[in-house]
């Protein structure tokens, strides 16, 4: 594990938390358990050197550059978080990692326990964390032996490892700090004396008397701990909080009840799972952020009689304000992610359906606004329905994530039928009444058509997991149902926003070309991306079904197209009831489309057998040189124990972003050569047909969909999460680091 070993209380917090809690938008803290402890690059030499490439800048400052022999001086490890980032106290709370030190000192020189300033509380979901969100300093006493001559040089060096976190990320960082001292008269440096005065002022004041603690087993609330702290009754308290340094002694997120009993302050809270075998070390905050440090011995704490209640604070009481902040952040992320989805390759073909409508309505602002609202309603409605489906299925215990509907080949067949029908309509095989009916029918059909276009756009857009979406959708799973549905609605609003802007700003609409004969040619040209979309869906079916199933699905589509062709013939001949052939074949095609996948389904192993599935014995030999494996958690753990560099990624055949990344970055000869030379093993998780194990793994990494790319460097046991959009050099640069 290295120096940044995980506190056991964090492991218990993760084990006890329900899965949705682990998908908090505060991936900031979850990442401290899940991401890799990679060696950092920050190196600070002395106090003057700063770094812009680290999230918490560090430096080492000595109070005296000439410490006296046989005396003690103080070193300050100065931590300067960038805006929005924070570091951790020596007991980080529910989630997080405390700083770790590896001192390299001259013979005879020693350091004592570091002194930390009073921490702050940071509640995200129901995880309480003990952090510093502003610049701070950790003071370390340095003991100089008495047998050193004046003028003896002292090289002091510390390898520091710490965790820097913010709302959407956690980064393990490392710094090598050093300073050179000389044995002298012990006079403090005037340059830094004011800083040391301020840093000491931020330390908790030592409480002169010892406290007493007792574990109490209550039938209604379980095991609790009660602490009696000697404190005069006239000492003012303002929102007190107890920070316990002993790992596992208390539940950091539990409610803390403070009561007065004469000259004692009684604190009662939920006990942790570890009974301390030494005195309890803690800090209690009082008025003005002042902290009192004390030790408590095991003993008897009398039950409260006429005690006066002072305060109680807990995760539950702060949850409302925390939820509002998380919700607003996630909502903005969902809207931004929805807007960006419009330029993603999985959505762009569907948007071509609105080009003709925008041009046709450029002269009618009222109709344009009506269609814009209808389109927006369709998009938002589908996003809310899909979100509600995810929440309902997960509440029932089913592991599903975003785009879960496309893991069912029956849905793919249905989408293929719909996309094919749209493509042949744009190509002119048949006509829809809304295109050339009377004005009143066209107006009504336009709004209805816009609504269903929005439905289709949102439904097909969901396989994409673009920028900002991972955090937003992770938060949606965490939040209460109503708030979660608001996030899904925000995603739909973002998808519809460009068309909504065109509809409500006539000046933009007037810049579009006026209706004319050119529209028919453009309409036929726009059939091409729809045919490409249908072809992509057929390819997805080829990954989900056997070859016979793919042929059967193609036959179903051909049946529908035959009915549409007959409808087109009847329309051009002006015959009555032209839609009879289409309706008849559509009903049959939908029925067959529901039955075909069940009749020709195949397992993931057999589906990949034609391309040497990584799980098959043949593949083990064929891929030996490439070290390509299918995802398996037990095998992943075994490889991690072997100190093997690992690249693990999760994909789906219906995820266009995944396929683009594979083409441009993963399945490149230069990447394969670099991985082979470095001995990198690649592990692939296929989420095409859904997999509860993969879904749970994605959830633990704050994702509800694919793609997800993880890099395990040698000597680490936690991954580095790579961006969702890879560049051609993204992976080769990892090997070169």
From TrEMBL:
Pfam families: DsbD_N, DsbD_TM, Thioredoxin_7. It is a multi-pass membrane protein. One of its GO terms (biological process) is cell redox homeostasis. GO terms for cellular component: plasma membrane. It is found in: Cell membrane. GO terms for molecular function: protein-disulfide reductase activity. It comes from the Bacteria. The chain crosses the membrane at residues 324-351, 372-392, 412-435, 447-470, 482-505, 525-543, 549-567, 579-600. Keywords: Cell membrane, Cytochrome c-type biogenesis, Membrane, Transmembrane, Transmembrane helix. Coiled coil: none annotated. Residues 607-737 form the Thioredoxin domain. This is Thioredoxin domain-containing protein. It comes from Halomonas huangheensis.
């Amino acid at each position: 594990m290295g120096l940044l070993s995980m506190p056991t209380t964090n492991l218990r917090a993760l084990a006890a938390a329900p899965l949705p809690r682990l998908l908090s938008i505060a991936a900031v803290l979850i990442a401290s358990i899940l991401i890799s402890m990679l060696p950092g690059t920050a190196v600070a030499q002395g106090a003057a050197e700063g770094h812009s490439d680290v999230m918490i800048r560090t430096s080492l400052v000595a109070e005296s550059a000439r410490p006296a022999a046989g005396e003690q001086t103080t070193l300050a490890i100065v931590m300067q978080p960038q805006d929005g980032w924070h570091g951790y106290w020596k007991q980080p709370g529910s989630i997080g990692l405390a700083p770790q030190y590896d001192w390299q000192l001259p013979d005879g020189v020693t350091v004592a326990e570091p002194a930390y300033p009073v921490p702050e509380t940071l509640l995200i979901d129901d995880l309480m964390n003990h952090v510093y969100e502003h610049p701070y300093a950790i003071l370390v006493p340095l003991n100089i032996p008495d047998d050193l001559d004046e003028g003896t040089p002292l090289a002091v060096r510390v390898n520091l490892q710490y965790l820097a976190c913010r709302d959407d990320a956690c980064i393990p960082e490392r710094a090598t700090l050093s300073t050179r001292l000389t044995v002298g008269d012990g006079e403090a440096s005037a340059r830094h004396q004011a800083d040391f005065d301020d840093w000491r002022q931020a330390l908790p004041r030592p409480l002169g008397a010892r406290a007493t603690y007792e574990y109490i087993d209550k039938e209604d609330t379980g095991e609790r701990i009660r602490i009696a702290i000697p404190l005069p009754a006239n000492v003012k308290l303002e929102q007190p909080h107890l920070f316990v340094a002993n790992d596992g002694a208390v539940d950091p997120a539990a409610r803390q009840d403070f009561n007065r009993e004469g000259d004692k302050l009684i604190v009662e809270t939920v006990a942790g799972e570890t009974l301390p075998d030494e005195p309890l070390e803690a800090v209690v905050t009082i008025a003005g952020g002042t902290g009192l440090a004390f030790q408590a011995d095991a003993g008897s704490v009398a039950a409260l009689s006429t005690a006066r209640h002072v305060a109680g604070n807990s995760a539950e009481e702060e949850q409302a304000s925390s939820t509002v902040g998380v919700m607003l952040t996630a909502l903005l992320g969902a809207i931004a992610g929805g807007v960006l989805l419009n330029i993603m390759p999985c959505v762009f073909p569907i948007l071509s359906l609105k080009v003709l409508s925008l041009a046709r309505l450029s002269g009618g602002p009222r109709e344009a606004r009506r269609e814009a609202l209808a389109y927006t309603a369709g998009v938002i409605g589908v996003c809310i329905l899909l979100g509600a489906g995810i929440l309902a299925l997960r509440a029932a215990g089913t592991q599903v994530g975003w785009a879960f509907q496309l893991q069912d080949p029956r849905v793919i067949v249905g989408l293929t039928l719909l996309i094919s029908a749209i493509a042949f309509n744009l190509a002119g095989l048949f006509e829809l009444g809304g295109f050339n009916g009377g004005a009143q029918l066209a107006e009504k059909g336009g709004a209805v058509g816009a609504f269903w276009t929005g439905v289709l756009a949102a439904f097909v857009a969901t396989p994409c997991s673009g920028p900002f979406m991972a955090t937003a959708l992770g938060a949606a799973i965490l939040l209460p149902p109503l708030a979660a549905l608001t996030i899904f609605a925000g995603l739909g609003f973002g998808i519809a926003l460009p068309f909504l802007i065109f509809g409500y700003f006539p000046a933009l609409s007037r810049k579009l070309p006026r209706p004319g004969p050119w529209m028919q040619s453009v309409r036929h040209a726009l059939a091409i991306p729809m045919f490409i979309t249908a072809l992509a869906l057929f390819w997805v079916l080829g990954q989900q079904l056997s070859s016979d199933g793919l042929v059967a699905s193609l036959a179903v589509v051909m049946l529908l197209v035959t009915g549409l062709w007959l409808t087109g013939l009847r329309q051009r001949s002006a015959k009555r009831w032209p839609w009879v052939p289409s309706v008849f074949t559509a009903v049959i095609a939908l029925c067959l489309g529901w039955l075909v996948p069940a009749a020709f389904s195949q397992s993931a192993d057999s589906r990949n057998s034609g391309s040497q599935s990584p799980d098959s014995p043949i593949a083990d030999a064929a891929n030996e040189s490439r070290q390509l494996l299918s995802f398996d958690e037990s095998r992943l753990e075994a490889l991690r124990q072997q100190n093997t560099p690992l690249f693990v990624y999760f994909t789906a055949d219906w995820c266009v972003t995944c396929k683009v990344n594979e083409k441009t970055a993963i399945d490149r000869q230069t990447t394969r050569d670099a991985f082979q030379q470095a001995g990198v093993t690649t592990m692939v998780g296929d989420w095409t047909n859904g997999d509860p194990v993969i879904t749970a793994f994605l959830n633990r990494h704050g994702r509800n969909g694919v793609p997800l790319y993880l890099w395990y460097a040698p000597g680490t046991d936690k991954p580095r999460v790579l961006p969702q959009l890879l560049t051609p050099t993204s992976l080769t640069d990892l090997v070169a680091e």
